[in-house]
Amino acid sequence: MVSAGAQVGVFAACVVLFVPMGLAGWHLSRNKVLFFSGALFVSLAVGVHLSPYLPSLPHLLIASFHPTSPSSSSSSASCLSLLHRVTWSPASPATARAWSWPPSLASTCGFARLTRHDASTLLNGSWIMVAGDSQARLLVLALLRLLLDPAAAAAAEPDLFRRHSDYHAAVPARGISVDFIWAPFEANLTRLLREDLRLAPRAPDVLVLGSGLWHMLHATDASRYGDALAAIADAANALRSSLPVPPPPHMFWLGLPHLVNPMLNTDAKRARMNDTILQAYDREVDERCILRRDGGPFLLLDVGKLTRGCECTPDGMHYDGVVYDAVMHIMFNALVIESQQRI
């Protein structure tokens, strides 16, 4: 929705632009170089005066990227709730598992899988930050595999998976910056929101956080986990409210995966990371107002739902790259819908 101030600004800019250009064209029609120079000068001046009324470039690009997305806010909200309704094709000796949206749903909501060019256009000029544990690291790997050519993505993988370390990558041609922050515990995420990002010169355009596996293994206390989630939600809301312009980050919460208990590789994991405990942790996510659907700041990336559908895990906890590819494309399509709602 365009504000009254923006409408006035646009009208004034049109007057400033077209009246002088018309007069210039009348008097300088025989001197094309002089006319072009004058028109360019006036256009730049208008751009300077009009820029405060326009959204930041990354958000503008995101909002204009997906022409088939629903236009009304009600249909957009409905489509957001349908993003995780993917179908899985069965694996065979010749093919791996694959995912897709049902054709009718893809047509109705405009959901689409992105090519490298599409993703680079969508994220042009954006800063993406992903913070959490190994699940978050696997999401970053999926992102790099899409944004970079295969050789560059393969070369980046050893640094990305350096144990307990942060990672940074860039796509200079598109001005895209990607950061992974190793933050396995909830307190790490709260500190990131309350301290590190408040001191940063700008906020990320896209912020993905997730935690729970380390707390489940080392603390095994769902109530304490819930208290920590509430602190994260408070810190995220405080960060959003403290940011003037550009708009606050698009915030996503990376949900816990389905755990296949017999496949877990240590006795401690098999004892503490079972279905009963996982359900208790998931309930805390639902009840602590961390998710957008409950009035919180984060849109859920439901890894649990996707992994229950895929059943493609080598160790009962981490899943094949196809799962994180699905998570990434769900996030991309949510970005398109959310950005259209902000305009």
From TrEMBL:
Primary subcellular site in the record, as a coarse category: membrane
Keywords linked to the UniProt accession: Membrane, Transmembrane, Transmembrane helix
Record keyword Nucleotide-binding present: no
GO molecular function: acetyltransferase activity
Any one GO CC term of the record: Golgi apparatus
Bilayer-spanning residue ranges: 6-26, 33-54
Cellular localization per UniProt: Membrane
GO biological process entries: xylan biosynthetic process
Protein's name according to its UniProt entry: Pmr5/Cas1p GDSL/SGNH-like acyl-esterase family protein
